[in-house]
Structure formats: C-alpha cells, structure tokens
Amino acid sequence: METDAAAPVANARRGRPSAESTRLRMAHLLEVARGIFVRRGYRATTMDEVAAAAGVTKRTLYAWHADKEALFRACVMLGAERFPRIEPGEGEDPRAALERYVLELHQELTREDSYGMGALFLREAAEFPELAGSIQRGHFDFMIAPLAAYLRKLGLEEGDSTERTMLFVAMALSPLHNAMLVGMDLPDSTGVAAHARRCVSIFLGGSKVD
C-alpha cells in the first residue's frame, strides 16, 4: 500500500517538468534550431519545422521565443557563449596567452555550426538587416569586451577604447574571413599555429620585418 509520503512524489512526476528538465529541453531546442538555420538558411527555416525537429509543440516554442528573429538571436547567443575567454595560467606570459587564444578562437569558429552561422549572416544580412544586431552583440559582448579588458591590464588597449582589440581580432580571424569572402582554403592546424604566432608577434612588436 502506498504511503502518504510517497503520494507527493508520484504527483510531482505527473506534474509540471522540473526547472532542470525545462532548461535541458530549451538547450536542445537551440542546438536543433542552429543546425536547421545552418542547413536551410534564415529565410527557409520555419518555426513549425524547428518545433517538429526539436520535439516540442508550437505553443511551447512560441512561449520560449516570440518569433523567428528571437529564436535566431538566441541561437547566436548560444554560440557566442562558447567563445574562448583569455584566462592566462599562472606564470603564463602575454605572448603565449594570446597565441593560445587565437588557436582556441579558430577551433570554435571553424566548428560546423559556428562557421555555418557566420556564412548564413554573410549570405542573408542584406535581405534581413535585423540579423546584424544579434551578431554584433555576440561579437562585442563575448569576444571584444573580454579581450579588451585583458589587454588594458597589459597596457595594450587605451582607456575605454576597443580599437586595438578589434584590430587584433581582425588579424586573428583573417584566415576565416578569407575563406568566407574570397573562397580561400582554411589553414590546417599547423597553419593556424603559425598564423597565431605571426599575428601576436605583429600585434606586440609592430609590423616591421627584421
């Protein structure tokens, strides 16, 4: 015979999902949505398709994300949260820390979904200018601002400026931009390591060739 103490447990199992269960479902939805956006593009992706693929009802999807733009924005933020943070190890010099950061940045941004989201933006930004806001926010809040804070501690960025930081990031990401914009091949791991060393050397010491 079931005791009174067991009854609330049974009722909880039949009741609303736990906060952790909901969090996992929401995270799964965004991973699924990122994949669909990458494969089909922003224009062709539909909320109905995302809901079906993620195994949630349309009502649930719209409760979490008001429209497709909001869903895309959440997908961008999911990727931006994976950007590496420059957190030097004890005794690690700035050169080594920056080189490691460039390597980790390339590892993240050449992931299939990350690279695909960048390519999607380049293809469809002119038609859907509203996409730019979320891309720019993710870029600044999760890449530029944290790196600028680190560079200020080293005296390598001025005041509240992010100009030098953005120049460094532009150099660091140039192989990806070359691949996306002009069709050049992405470098292999050896090439990325050489690029990281060259990029950091130029940033720290100037562009004069010895």
TrEMBL record:
InterPro entries: Homeodomain-like_sf, HTH-type_TetR-like_transc_reg, HTH_TetR, Tet_transcr_reg_TetR-rel_C_sf
Stretches assigned to the HTH tetR-type domain: 23-83
Keywords: DNA-binding
DNA-binding region: 46-65
Record's keyword annotation contains Cell wall biogenesis/degradation: no
Residues covered by region (Disordered): 1-20
Gene3D superfamilies: Tetracycline Repressor, domain 2
Highest taxon listed in the record's lineage: Bacteria
UniProt xrefs under PROSITE patterns: HTH_TETR_2
UniProt-recorded name of the protein: TetR/AcrR family transcriptional regulator
